[in-house]
Amino acid sequence: IRLLTPPSMFCAGTEIFFVVVSYPKFASNMSAANRSQPIKLNRPVVGKARKLKDLMLKSDNRVCADCSAPDPKWASSNIGVFLCLKCGDVHRALGQDISNVLSLTLDDWSDSDIDSMIEVGGNSYANSIYEAFLPKDHPKPKPDSPMEYRTKFIRW
Ligand SMILES: [Zn+2]
């Protein structure tokens, strides 16, 4: 996922579209009503949490959206991707209004967090949008890529 790409001739439309649609989602994530009944994913899984578990089990979501490290334990609920710890750290450093990073096992997930993950559908769809115009000289990081490269890719 490339989050801070400056608008260019080819991807300006996509980037602007995502900024516009993600902001209202973020705002609703923060409302008191939606935060009042958090769902712990490590409790018995029912309802929406069940749907999120099912999403986690899809093959494209069993690896980090950015570096393909196996078994991601984090997710960005507004962007709708599953992330490894290292890429999750880079996302978190961008600020919650850009990428709302949550632990799949430790954090409370609100209904709206889960809804926005399910709406995007996970790594394949999100990457098809955010990485539609990936430049050839800027390949995706690998699980063992240094933090500098990972950060450069995600913030690029
Ligand atoms: Zn990663």
Automatic annotation (TrEMBL):
<protein>
    <recommendedName>
        <fullName>Arf-GAP domain-containing protein</fullName>
    </recommendedName>
</protein>
<keyword id="KW-0479">Metal-binding</keyword>
<keyword id="KW-0863">Zinc-finger</keyword>
<dbReference type="GO" id="GO:0008270">
    <property type="term" value="F:zinc ion binding"/>
</dbReference>
<dbReference type="GO" id="GO:0005543">
    <property type="term" value="F:phospholipid binding"/>
</dbReference>
<dbReference type="InterPro" id="IPR001164">
    <property type="entry name" value="ArfGAP_dom"/>
</dbReference>
<keyword id="KW-0862">Zinc</keyword>
<dbReference type="Pfam" id="PF01412">
    <property type="entry name" value="ArfGap"/>
</dbReference>
<dbReference type="InterPro" id="IPR038508">
    <property type="entry name" value="ArfGAP_dom_sf"/>
</dbReference>
<dbReference type="GO" id="GO:0005096">
    <property type="term" value="F:GTPase activator activity"/>
</dbReference>
<feature type="domain" description="Arf-GAP">
    <location>
        <begin position="49"/>
        <end position="156"/>
    </location>
</feature>
<dbReference type="InterPro" id="IPR044518">
    <property type="entry name" value="ARF_GAP_AGD11/12/13"/>
</dbReference>
<dbReference type="InterPro" id="IPR037278">
    <property type="entry name" value="ARFGAP/RecO"/>
</dbReference>
